[in-house]
Amino acid sequence: MCTRTLNVAITPASATFAVCIAAQHSLNPELEAARPSTAGEEELQLQLALAMSKEEAEEDERKKRSDDVKLHLALEESKKEDVSINSTGDS
To answer: What digits encode the pLDDT tens for the residues 36-67?
Structure first.
């Protein structure tokens, strides 16, 4: 069923044809089932999504700190090796 028609000129003689634009879009049934049915359910979904996002951000921050510590330790070890090599090379 058409809910709207659009006249489009297709020739210089102004011939037109109607284009039917359907207003109904069939959604994936799984997506439709995941849609909240009440405002309370929507609020719970939003709270859950926010909590999951915060948890992911905290985990990313922990990994970053761990990587920073590992980098710092590697740099310190490299400096010690450099000093050791330079001091034995001076003898």
So the answer is: 889 999 999 999 999 999 999 999 999 999 99
